[in-house]
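User: What would this chain look like folded?
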Amino acid sequence: MAARLEARAAEIAKQRLVELPPPVAVPEFVGGFPREAVALLTESYREMLSVQGLYNQNAVRQRQVARILESRHGAEIASRAISDTAFAKEAFGDFQAESRFYSIDVLRTAAKKGDERWLLRSADALARELTLTGGGGAALDEGRSTDLRDLMHAYIDVKGVQSLANGESALLRSLGYSPGMPAPVKRIYDDVLFLRLKALHGREQAASMTAALLEG
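Assistant: Here's the prediction, encoded as C-alpha coordinates.
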Protein backbone atom coordinates (compact mmCIF):
# COMPACT_ATOMS: atom_id res chain seq x y z
CA MET A 1 0.00 0.00 0.00
CA ALA A 2 2.73 2.47 0.99
CA ALA A 3 4.64 1.80 -2.22
CA ARG A 4 1.53 2.45 -4.32
CA LEU A 5 0.82 5.70 -2.46
CA GLU A 6 4.42 6.77 -2.91
CA ALA A 7 4.33 6.03 -6.63
CA ARG A 8 1.05 7.88 -7.10
CA ALA A 9 2.34 10.89 -5.16
CA ALA A 10 5.49 10.97 -7.29
CA GLU A 11 3.37 10.87 -10.45
CA ILE A 12 1.21 13.78 -9.30
CA ALA A 13 4.22 15.80 -8.17
CA LYS A 14 5.94 15.30 -11.52
CA GLN A 15 2.88 16.63 -13.35
CA ARG A 16 2.62 19.61 -11.01
CA LEU A 17 6.24 20.51 -11.67
CA VAL A 18 5.57 20.52 -15.41
CA GLU A 19 2.64 22.89 -14.89
CA LEU A 20 4.55 25.36 -12.71
CA PRO A 21 5.77 28.55 -14.42
CA PRO A 22 9.49 28.38 -15.24
CA PRO A 23 11.90 29.85 -12.69
CA VAL A 24 12.84 33.49 -13.12
CA ALA A 25 16.06 34.12 -15.03
CA VAL A 26 18.68 35.51 -12.64
CA PRO A 27 22.06 37.16 -13.27
CA GLU A 28 25.38 35.50 -12.48
CA PHE A 29 25.25 36.92 -8.96
CA VAL A 30 22.12 37.77 -6.99
CA GLY A 31 22.57 39.79 -3.82
CA GLY A 32 26.16 38.62 -3.69
CA PHE A 33 25.25 34.94 -4.07
CA PRO A 34 26.19 32.89 -7.15
CA ARG A 35 23.36 31.96 -9.50
CA GLU A 36 23.85 28.25 -8.79
CA ALA A 37 23.34 28.74 -5.05
CA VAL A 38 20.04 30.55 -5.58
CA ALA A 39 18.96 27.99 -8.18
CA LEU A 40 19.41 25.20 -5.63
CA LEU A 41 16.83 26.81 -3.34
CA THR A 42 14.48 27.51 -6.22
CA GLU A 43 14.65 23.88 -7.29
CA SER A 44 14.11 22.62 -3.74
CA TYR A 45 11.19 24.97 -3.09
CA ARG A 46 9.52 23.93 -6.34
CA GLU A 47 9.89 20.30 -5.31
CA MET A 48 8.33 21.11 -1.94
CA LEU A 49 5.42 22.92 -3.57
CA SER A 50 4.81 20.05 -5.97
CA VAL A 51 4.14 17.61 -3.12
CA GLN A 52 1.92 19.94 -1.08
CA GLY A 53 -0.87 17.85 0.44
CA LEU A 54 0.45 14.56 -0.93
CA TYR A 55 1.33 11.36 0.88
CA ASN A 56 5.07 12.01 0.71
CA GLN A 57 4.92 15.73 1.58
CA ASN A 58 6.76 15.56 4.90
CA ALA A 59 9.50 13.27 3.66
CA VAL A 60 10.19 15.41 0.60
CA ARG A 61 10.21 18.65 2.59
CA GLN A 62 12.62 17.21 5.14
CA ARG A 63 14.91 15.95 2.40
CA GLN A 64 14.91 19.26 0.55
CA VAL A 65 15.45 21.32 3.72
CA ALA A 66 18.41 19.09 4.59
CA ARG A 67 19.80 19.60 1.09
CA ILE A 68 19.57 23.37 1.48
CA LEU A 69 21.21 23.38 4.90
CA GLU A 70 24.05 21.21 3.62
CA SER A 71 24.82 23.75 0.91
CA ARG A 72 27.29 26.55 1.49
CA HIS A 73 24.88 29.49 1.23
CA GLY A 74 21.54 27.80 1.81
CA ALA A 75 20.59 29.13 5.25
CA GLU A 76 21.82 32.64 4.46
CA ILE A 77 19.86 32.82 1.22
CA ALA A 78 16.75 31.58 3.03
CA SER A 79 17.24 34.31 5.63
CA ARG A 80 17.64 37.00 2.97
CA ALA A 81 14.55 35.76 1.15
CA ILE A 82 12.54 36.62 4.25
CA SER A 83 14.26 39.78 5.41
CA ASP A 84 14.93 41.48 2.06
CA THR A 85 11.95 41.79 -0.28
CA ALA A 86 14.05 43.28 -3.11
CA PHE A 87 16.37 40.28 -2.97
CA ALA A 88 13.44 37.85 -2.86
CA LYS A 89 11.92 39.47 -5.94
CA GLU A 90 15.18 39.35 -7.89
CA ALA A 91 16.04 35.81 -6.84
CA PHE A 92 12.60 34.17 -7.01
CA GLY A 93 10.40 36.47 -9.09
CA ASP A 94 6.69 35.71 -8.75
CA PHE A 95 7.65 32.72 -6.59
CA GLN A 96 8.81 35.01 -3.78
CA ALA A 97 5.83 34.41 -1.46
CA GLU A 98 6.39 30.66 -1.63
CA SER A 99 10.12 31.18 -1.17
CA ARG A 100 9.50 33.11 2.06
CA PHE A 101 7.13 30.43 3.33
CA TYR A 102 9.53 27.56 2.72
CA SER A 103 12.52 29.60 3.91
CA ILE A 104 10.93 29.80 7.35
CA ASP A 105 10.88 26.00 7.42
CA VAL A 106 14.59 26.02 6.55
CA LEU A 107 15.40 28.48 9.35
CA ARG A 108 13.30 26.54 11.85
CA THR A 109 15.24 23.39 11.08
CA ALA A 110 18.56 25.22 11.29
CA ALA A 111 17.57 26.59 14.71
CA LYS A 112 16.58 23.12 15.90
CA LYS A 113 20.07 21.99 14.92
CA GLY A 114 21.55 24.77 17.06
CA ASP A 115 22.08 27.55 14.51
CA GLU A 116 19.52 30.19 15.52
CA ARG A 117 21.27 33.21 14.01
CA TRP A 118 19.51 33.16 10.64
CA LEU A 119 16.01 32.92 12.10
CA LEU A 120 16.73 35.65 14.66
CA ARG A 121 18.36 37.87 12.07
CA SER A 122 15.32 37.58 9.81
CA ALA A 123 12.88 38.26 12.64
CA ASP A 124 14.81 41.32 13.77
CA ALA A 125 15.00 42.74 10.24
CA LEU A 126 11.31 42.12 9.68
CA ALA A 127 10.39 43.72 13.01
CA ARG A 128 12.39 46.81 12.03
CA GLU A 129 10.68 46.95 8.63
CA LEU A 130 7.21 46.71 10.14
CA THR A 131 8.08 49.21 12.87
CA LEU A 132 9.15 51.72 10.23
CA THR A 133 5.91 51.16 8.32
CA GLY A 134 3.66 51.27 11.39
CA GLY A 135 5.49 54.24 12.87
CA GLY A 136 4.74 56.20 9.75
CA GLY A 137 1.03 55.54 10.14
CA ALA A 138 0.74 53.23 7.14
CA ALA A 139 -1.10 49.92 7.28
CA LEU A 140 1.14 46.90 7.76
CA ASP A 141 1.62 44.62 4.78
CA GLU A 142 -0.40 41.47 5.43
CA GLY A 143 2.19 39.14 3.93
CA ARG A 144 5.05 40.62 5.92
CA SER A 145 2.99 40.51 9.12
CA THR A 146 2.32 36.83 8.45
CA ASP A 147 6.05 36.25 7.93
CA LEU A 148 6.80 37.69 11.38
CA ARG A 149 4.07 35.57 12.98
CA ASP A 150 5.42 32.45 11.30
CA LEU A 151 8.97 33.24 12.42
CA MET A 152 7.74 33.69 15.98
CA HIS A 153 5.90 30.37 15.90
CA ALA A 154 9.00 28.70 14.45
CA TYR A 155 11.22 30.02 17.22
CA ILE A 156 8.74 29.09 19.94
CA ASP A 157 8.60 25.60 18.41
CA VAL A 158 12.36 25.43 18.91
CA LYS A 159 12.57 26.95 22.39
CA GLY A 160 9.33 25.49 23.75
CA VAL A 161 6.22 27.25 25.06
CA GLN A 162 7.44 26.66 28.59
CA SER A 163 10.16 29.24 28.01
CA LEU A 164 7.37 31.79 27.62
CA ALA A 165 5.55 30.46 30.65
CA ASN A 166 8.76 30.95 32.61
CA GLY A 167 8.63 34.65 31.78
CA GLU A 168 11.70 34.71 29.53
CA SER A 169 11.17 38.16 27.98
CA ALA A 170 14.66 37.95 26.44
CA LEU A 171 13.15 35.52 23.94
CA LEU A 172 10.92 38.31 22.64
CA ARG A 173 13.76 40.79 22.42
CA SER A 174 15.78 38.30 20.40
CA LEU A 175 12.87 38.26 17.94
CA GLY A 176 13.07 42.03 17.48
CA TYR A 177 10.45 43.05 20.04
CA SER A 178 10.59 46.42 21.76
CA PRO A 179 7.98 47.89 24.15
CA GLY A 180 8.11 51.13 22.16
CA MET A 181 6.95 49.55 18.92
CA PRO A 182 3.85 50.93 17.14
CA ALA A 183 0.66 49.29 18.39
CA PRO A 184 -0.05 47.32 15.18
CA VAL A 185 3.38 45.67 15.37
CA LYS A 186 3.09 44.95 19.10
CA ARG A 187 -0.25 43.31 18.35
CA ILE A 188 1.53 40.68 16.25
CA TYR A 189 3.65 39.67 19.23
CA ASP A 190 0.62 39.87 21.52
CA ASP A 191 -1.47 37.60 19.29
CA VAL A 192 1.20 34.91 18.89
CA LEU A 193 2.14 34.85 22.59
CA PHE A 194 -1.47 34.67 23.72
CA LEU A 195 -2.31 31.91 21.25
CA ARG A 196 0.61 29.72 22.32
CA LEU A 197 0.14 30.31 26.07
CA LYS A 198 -3.62 29.84 25.96
CA ALA A 199 -3.19 26.26 24.75
CA LEU A 200 -1.35 25.43 27.99
CA HIS A 201 -2.77 27.78 30.59
CA GLY A 202 -6.23 28.88 29.50
CA ARG A 203 -7.47 32.29 28.40
CA GLU A 204 -7.29 34.25 31.66
CA GLN A 205 -3.82 33.16 32.74
CA ALA A 206 -2.49 33.44 29.18
CA ALA A 207 -3.68 37.06 28.98
CA SER A 208 -1.88 37.91 32.21
CA MET A 209 1.33 36.14 31.18
CA THR A 210 1.30 37.77 27.75
CA ALA A 211 0.93 41.23 29.25
CA ALA A 212 3.83 40.59 31.64
CA LEU A 213 6.08 39.41 28.82
CA LEU A 214 5.28 42.42 26.64
CA GLU A 215 5.89 44.83 29.49
CA GLY A 216 9.15 43.13 30.47
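The chain has twelve helices and two strands. If you want, I can go into more detail on any region.
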